[in-house]
Amino acid sequence: MYGKYCIPLFLLGLLARTMASPVQPIDNNTNFTVYSPTNAALGPRPLFTQIGNKFYFIETEVTKNWHDAYATCRQMGAHLISFNTADEWVAVTNYLVKNDINLYYWTSGSELAIQGNHVWFPTSDPIALNLWKPGEPNNQGGVEHCDTFTSDGLYDVNCTKLRRYICIL
C-alpha cells in the first residue's frame, strides 16, 4: 500500500535538495539574501550570500594559505573570488564594510604561472581593473605571488600567509 508513494516522495525529496532555499534576509533594507545552495553530487553547501546577482561564501573565521583556500572553494563547487567589473568590486567591498567584516581575503589572483603577470585563476584572464593599492604589486622579497584584498585595494603577498577567503559560485 505504501510502496506506490515511495518513488514520488523520493523524487520530491531529491528536487527539494537540489534547489536553493532562502535562510533569512541579512537586512530588510538591503538586497542581500543568504542562501544554502545544494548540489546533488556535493550535498549541502555552506551559506552563500547573494550580492547583486552572484553568490559568495565569505569565510570570516578560518584562515588558510592561498592553495588551501583555493582547494576549499573547489570542494564547495566554487572558486576563489575574482573581480571582473568595477561594479562587482564596489558591491562586494561595500557589503564587507557595511557588515563590519572588512578583513584581508584571498582572491583567485596570482602570478604563479608567469612571474610579473597577475591573472585570475583558473581563467587566466588578466587583472584588468586598476584595483591595486599604490605601489602594488611589488613582489617584495621575490616571494609575493598571490593576491589578497581589503576594501582599500588589491595587493600581492606570500602565498603561504594565512588569510580569510571568499568563494564565488
UniProtKB/TrEMBL annotation:
<dbReference type="InterPro" id="IPR001304">
    <property type="entry name" value="C-type_lectin-like"/>
</dbReference>
<feature type="signal peptide">
    <location>
        <begin position="1"/>
        <end position="20"/>
    </location>
</feature>
<feature type="domain" description="C-type lectin">
    <location>
        <begin position="51"/>
        <end position="168"/>
    </location>
</feature>
<dbReference type="InterPro" id="IPR050111">
    <property type="entry name" value="C-type_lectin/snaclec_domain"/>
</dbReference>
<dbReference type="InterPro" id="IPR016187">
    <property type="entry name" value="CTDL_fold"/>
</dbReference>
<keyword id="KW-0732">Signal</keyword>
<protein>
    <recommendedName>
        <fullName>C-type lectin domain-containing protein</fullName>
    </recommendedName>
</protein>
<dbReference type="Pfam" id="PF00059">
    <property type="entry name" value="Lectin_C"/>
</dbReference>
<dbReference type="InterPro" id="IPR016186">
    <property type="entry name" value="C-type_lectin-like/link_sf"/>
</dbReference>
